[in-house]
Amino acid sequence: MLDNTKARNVLKTYIDKYDFSNPRIKLKANHIFRVADAAKKIATELNLTKEEIDLAELIGLLHDIGRFEQLRVYDTFKDKESVNHAEMGIKVLKENNFIKQFCNDEKYYDIIFKAIYNHNRYKIEDGLDSETLLQAKIIRDADKIDILNLLVFENFETLYKKKEIIDEPITQNVLDSMLEGKQVERKYQKTSMDDWASNIGYIYDIYFKPSFKILKEKDYINKIIDRTKTPEMEKIREYVNKYIDRKIAE
Ligand SMILES: [Fe+2]
């Protein structure tokens, strides 16, 4: 039996040890709890068992636990310049069997670690059993939904260290990928607007219908694009909204 009320309290106590006056700590803490809620919602709408729903929520709570040590030790969230934060999280949870405080039952540990390990990879690794694969997909969807949520309200200064990005061009390859329903390859991204538009491409890697429903309900895509209204972004808006509607209707 999982006890997520206890898990939430253990997590809060853990996060409280970090410097909350640092806005980046606060940002990640809030992100984690929203992702846990989204994961729970997706699992519930997929009509999974109570046990699977609880596990999805718990993985949501734990998926970014490595962020705090990453920030404390390296002062950055950029994995490329520091550590893979998923692997850091697994290390934190394994140290002194910290995971036991979140979850008493060892039978879940393998799924939890594998779902965390896969949450930030470009693609899920091959060879996972069906239960682990399911949980890996749920956490990836929930995480992406909250990243899109962040883009609705986070200021450009924090994201790009610039007041505005709208005057920058979108590289043709980036636009082409977005209008072909393909995730944008990093090598094509040259400007901040490229990065901005590419983020919307996360939806092309979303698995579940309930996730698309959340995106539509919250209207994240339109709200993101409303912040940067250009003719190219309007083309992306049209394509992406149709893509979401199609996924919901499937
Ligand atoms: Fe993460």
Describe, in plain words, how this protein is organized in 3D.
- This protein has two domains: 1-154, Hypothetical protein af1432 (Orthogonal Bundle); 162-250, no CATH class.
- By secondary structure, the chain is an all-alpha fold.
- The mean pLDDT is 95.
- The chain is globular and about 55 Å long.
- It has helices at residues 4-16, 23-45, 50-62, 66-74, 85-94, 99-102, 109-119, 130-153, 156-160, 172-178, 192-200, 209-218, 220-226, 231-249.
- It binds fe (ii) ion.
- Fe (ii) ion (FE2) is lined by residues 63-64, 85, 119-120, 143.
List keywords for this structure.
2 domains; binds fe (ii) ion; globular; 0% strand; mainly alpha; 250 residues; 66% helix
Tally of contiguous helical segments: 14
Number of strands: 0
- Helix proportion range: 55-70%
State the CATH topology of the largest domain: Hypothetical protein af1432
Q: Which second-level CATH architecture of the largest domain applies?
A: Orthogonal Bundle
Assigned CATH superfamily of the largest domain: Hypothetical protein af1432
Rg from alpha-carbon coordinates: 18 Å
Bound molecules: fe (ii) ion
Written as H for each helix and E for each strand, in order along the chain, the element string is HHHHHHHHHHHHHH
Structural class: mainly alpha
How would you characterize the largest beta sheet?
A: none
Could you tell me the mean pLDDT?
Answer: 95
Instruction: Note the gap between the termini.
Output: 35 Å
CATH C-level label of the largest domain: Mainly Alpha
Low-confidence stretches: none
